[in-house]
Amino acid sequence: MKYIKNKEDRNSILFYLANLISIFGTAIYTFAISLYTLKITGSSISFSTTLILSVLPIIILNPFVGVIVDKFNKKKLAVIANALNGIFLFTVYLISNWKGLNLGTIYLSTFVITSINIIFDISIDSAIPNIVSKDKVVNINSGNRIIDSISSVLGPVLGGVAFAAFNIETFILINSISFIVSAILDTLIDFKYNTENESEEMDSESITFGKLNYFKEIAEGLKYLISKRYIIRILSIFIIFNFFISFSVTIPIPIILNNILEIPAKSYGLIQGGIPVGMIIGAFVVKKIMAKYKLNNIFSAVGIVMSVNIILLSIPILFKTINNINVYIMYYLIIMIFMGICISLVDIPFSYTMQTNIEEEYRGRSISLTISIVKVVVPISYIISGILLQSIEPYIVVLFGGISVLIISIIFFKYAKRLYN
To answer: Do 110 and 50 form a contact (C-beta atoms < 8 A)?
Structure first.
């Protein structure tokens, strides 16, 4: 990296490489280990348990990790997190070669890796404004979104290939090495490139993890977050969008596509791939949009477009006048691409707002609390949607969600406009 003279560009490239390796490693591992669980048990419950264990730590541990990130050196935390994942997976590799890979080890490894990744994710998200200048923060978030989207598409593909080509032990070893490489790349990033206060993190010699009053620190972080009225307004609409996307798209659409329209499995996978493709497109155009329009207007406009897309998802079920399955495939694929674009146009500006409008000493807690709130809201929307789908038609749930987002977006636009005036 010595030939890259501009330190900011060097930071960006190292950041992308480290995240690419880390995120892909996690996506591939989660998918492949879930397949392995399904293979050795034949139980959908065991398969679901593995997936749940990859989400549960995020809800439970996020607020506590946010405190740690605010109090300790973010670079050290990011490096240690990736190194620990690598060491832990290598230990799992040794154990699996010695005694075999059983269900208990799989559950434990999934929980541990997800928990360690929380430290890495929040440390990195909080440190982004320190790694590059303010005008490059959107670029970094967009690049990160592209990596996330690509990994969500290729992760299962590569996981499937790895699962077929290697035994699970060899795959675990390769994944272990990927985390170590990511940790090494993190050590090369200058985490103080855009930092005014050199002593922003408390030195680990003056405070230890055990001496922190976590609940008091979390309460202070929540109090600070609530005091930021602008952030709370944006957070509220962000949570509402996440709730209704989960409520009216994530749960009912698979039922509509698979059970009602009887879309073939391969075509269903193609349609699902439309969202990450749209997210990549959105990541490329978001900076230009943010440069031209105010954030409130972006959220309102995107909400309206998103609501129209959600409503359109229910139209084929209402009329059923087309018999050509390819028309349905193209129709839903286009809508999913637009949905992906909308998601990027909400997620990236929201991340930028959190990273640039929250003081350094509260950033970790604010980001972690926000993620926890969203992660709690989404399962609730799944449950409500699932219960409703037991007694009413899926298209009604989709229509309700779309109309709700439309109404909320219009109200938010008028409210934001009144505040601005």
So the answer is: yes
CATH 1.20.1250.20, the chain: domain bounds: 7-192, 220-420
Q: Taking a C-beta distance cutoff of 8 angstroms, is the pair 15, 140 a contact?
A: yes
DSSP-H helix ranges across 74-167 = 74-99, 103-131, 137-165
Query: What global pTM score does this model have?
Result: 0.80
At 166, the amino acid letter reads F
How many C-beta atoms surround the C-beta of residue 372 within 10 A? Answer: 20
Q: How many whole angstroms separate alpha carbon 263 and alpha carbon 30? A: 26
Query: N- to C-terminal Cα distance for the chain?
Result: 49
Rounded-to-integer distance, Cα 271 and Cα 330, Å:
8
- CATH number (3.40.50.720, 1.20.1250.20, 3.30.40.10, 2.60.40.10) of 7-192 reads 1.20.1250.20
For the stretch 126-165, pLDDT in tens is 999 999 988 889 989 898 888 888 877 777 677 667 677 7
Q: Are 381 and 249 in contact (CB under 8 A)?
A: no
For CA atoms 13, 18, 23, 29, give the dihedral sign: positive
CATH number, span 220-420: 1.20.1250.20
Look at residue 322 and give its three-state secondary structure.
Answer: coil
Q: Distance between alpha carbon 112 and the CA centroid of its chain, in Å? A: 18
C-beta separation of 57 from 114 below 8 A: yes
Other CB atoms within 10 A of residue 3 CB: 5
Q: How far apart are CA 134 and CA 128, in angstroms?
A: 9
**254-311: pLDDT as tens digits:** 888 888 888 887 788 788 888 889 999 999 999 999 989 888 888 889 999 999 999 9
